[in-house]
Design brief:
Helix content is 51%, strand content 4%. By secondary structure, it is mostly helical.
Length: 330
């Protein structure tokens, strides 16, 4: 089966170059971010426990995770698979668009980012990892698709009808499209397993359960697919048919199983969310008593005090008219 040729550059305008490889990382990070926001907004998934972070903290966390993925992935690739670049072509280390990212290095970088962020925000490290684990397969899926588009990390020779001749292999031999296998197992299948763990079994309140499920699930998929994936160039022949990917995945499998076992203990259950304090009603101000209404009846018709001097003058005038007049003097 011929390999469908892809231009690794999606769009170019002057010095601005958008590559499929970078776009895959951006898509995985953005989708993972929105997925985590959705998880913390669903109280039913936390079963009475408080979400480990809020929206603002997840927004800040994404920057740390991005740095961990890129720096850890690149440094891990150099140290695990291509250490000779350090003294033969050190500038190549900075050329991320040429490919060459290690999942295990990225995992270490993300673990360091989680630890630093959790300490700075006073969050439990394991519970924060449990929030990130269900979203991680989204990034893995797009990353493996980017490997396929970039014509790298192809599989071993095969006679299967779906074997592809990869141009960069430069041997004309049909090979397993192992990048697509990994996108399916490490991306889609692992995402579905963690989806069940999150929504079906509701494991978010159990510390370490989802993190362990992710580590063990990825390790099983990676160890299985290493049997059809071409070992990286320059790697020595390890005993028992092991590859570097297998040996780096075995500790993940052990750690994942240990976390799953520990998460089943009663002490692994997250504490219940604190009850909200009752809201006190503001004190009611006493209303002023209404002014007394004036009395009805005759008392209401009495003239005011100001009217008394006028009444007195009228009475004096009436008395003066009624008095007899003295006879005139002669």
């Amino acid at each position: 089966m011929p390999y469908p040729h892809f231009d690794p550059v999606l769009f170019q305008f002057g010095f601005i170059v958008i590559r499929w490889y970078a776009l895959a990382y951006v898509a995985g990070i953005l989708l993972g971010w929105r997925y985590m926001i959705g998880l913390i907004r669903k109280p039913a998934l936390w079963r009475g426990t408080a979400p480990v972070a809020d929206d603002r903290q997840v927004d800040d966390l994404i920057l740390w995770l991005t740095l961990g993925i890129i720096l850890g992935g690149r440094v891990g690739y150099i140290l695990f698979y291509n250490a000779q670049l350090i003294w033969t072509n050190p500038l190549e280390i900075l050329m991320l668009w040429h490919g060459g990212m290690s999942f295990h290095g990225g995992l270490i970088g993300v673990a360091l980012a989680i630890a630093i962020f959790a300490r700075a925000n006073r969050i439990e490290v394991v519970r924060l990892a449990d929030l990130i684990a269900p979203a991680a397969p989204l990034g893995l899926f797009f990353g493996r698709i980017a490997n396929f588009i970039n014509d790298e990390l192809w599989g071993r020779p095969t006679t299967a009808p779906w074997g592809m001749v990869f141009p960069n292999a430069q041997d004309g031999v049909p090979r397993h499209p192992s990048q697509l296998y990994e996108a399916g197992l490490e991306g889609i299948v692992l995402f579905c397993v963690l989806l069940w763990g999150t929504y079906g079994a509701k494991l978010l309140p159990r510390r370490g359960a989802l993190t362990g499920l992710f580590l063990a699930g990825y390790a099983v998929a990676r160890i299985a697919l290493e049997n059809v994936r071409e070992p990286d160039q320059g790697m020595p022949h390890f005993p028992l048919g092991l590859t570097m990917g297998m040996m780096l995945s075995i500790p993940m499998l052990i750690a994942g199983l240990a976390l799953i076992g520990w998460s089943r203990r009663p002490e692994a259950m997250a504490p219940p969310a604190p009850e909200a304090a009752p809201v006190k009603a503001p004190p009611v101000k006493a209303e002023a008593a209404p002014a007394a209404a004036p009395p009805a009846g005759p008392a209401a018709s009495k003239p005011r005090a100001k009217a008394k001097p006028a009444a007195r003058r009228k009475r004096k005038a009436a008395k003066a008219k009624a008095a007899p007049k003295a006879p005139p003097k002669t």
